[in-house]
Amino acid sequence: MNERQQARRPGGRGARVGAAVHQAVTDLVTDRGYGKFTVAEVAARAGVADSSIYRRWGSLETLLTDVALTRLNEQSPMPDTGTLVGDLRAYAAQVARVITGPDGLAVLRLTVALSSNGEKGLQARDAFLAERNEKLQSMLDRATARGENAPDALGVLDHVMAPMYVRILFGLGPLTPEYVDGLVDRLL
Amino acid sequence: MNERQQARRPGGRGARVGAAVHQAVTDLVTDRGYGKFTVAEVAARAGVADSSIYRRWGSLETLLTDVALTRLNEQSPMPDTGTLVGDLRAYAAQVARVITGPDGLAVLRLTVALSSNGEKGLQARDAFLAERNEKLQSMLDRATARGENAPDALGVLDHVMAPMYVRILFGLGPLTPEYVDGLVDRLL
To answer: Does the predicted model carry a pTM greater than 0.80?
Structure first.
């Protein structure tokens, strides 16, 4: 567990507050959608004081990002299959599963909501994307270290992730395994 | 002018109401963002009765889609340069200009907002995308008729439009002419 995770889930009372607040956010997102509730409503549902939320997260944007990242990391740990094609296919399949799953458009909606929410929103969005990008870059670096000819992370974003995101956003699913593998094979 | 456009802008009083309502929506989107205002607020700002809006557009979703499509069609008429590569490069450059312009993420935000707004929102989104897709398909059909080897419309979406949308959504702009042309050349 790294320092950041410790700060986020310090154990004991802090851990209980963290879990209650995460659950409250998840419930409110499901019930109403992103951008349709306040810190006060999260606090009321979690049974904590507003000030506890502001003290730990600083803003609603940072809290939303923390919840989305935690969920994303639980649902899609970065694969390590031993080959680049295996890793990328497994990664793309995970992303496809998350964005077509019960949470549906949640991560995309959050990204759009943050992009529309001023400087704090943009900072939270960039922190969210930087954390995901760092993990993808590690996967590509491992391939390069093995002597494989890896694309750069932006190439993966442009030609594997972006088509999947936009197809879901535009209601052009489902994302079949053949389609997802095809995006990876075309890139490589 | 086709029948649908006539229905939308019937001239005389209808045209004045249409223009006032479109302007009111554009102002409210700029001031507050999509999903942050009601039909009653549009009506008040446009100086018309709520019932005039419901009679002509049926729902807020349909009205939002009409405004977005009208703006998009004004800003990016489909090019006809005589070659596939010329048409696709011109089309991609237009889309890049619109999504990086002063309206910024507006069209993407609208698509997400509609996707999150129940059955009526989904229908409006699909009508919006179908109208854009039909125009792209005509461009590709012209190329095929000239004997060129055209990709299908989904290929253009996946590998030219989607990367641009996602880069803007994720704050990874600007979209340089070299980048945009490169997406087209890579697809062809």
So the answer is: no
